Amino acid sequence: MKAVAEALELSPSTVGDWKKRDGQIPERYVGQLKALIENRKPIVDQKMSFDQALAHFGTLQAIARAAGVHPKTAYYWKDSGTIPANSASKIRDLVSLSRHVTRSV
Question: Which of 98, 77, 97 lies closest to 86, judged by CA?
């Protein structure tokens, strides 16, 4: 439900209400959801080594900011040595964007 809410830029409670009411997505959102599904980017289902992220961002706090997580989460990643696929995808997007911006300057 959270992913649907984020994709439609709605509150998760709104989507939860749909489920409680009749389990149906209101017609006005169906077309938008279909378009999002058809045009979605492939999900990169790969973890990232913490050391890779550290080499790019320099600090644990910068990694946490890039992934949008609390620094305690990044400390856990440091201890485990890996960053989960979902957060790794966000970090890869930022790294890719920063390389693109650097090249165009």
Answer: 77
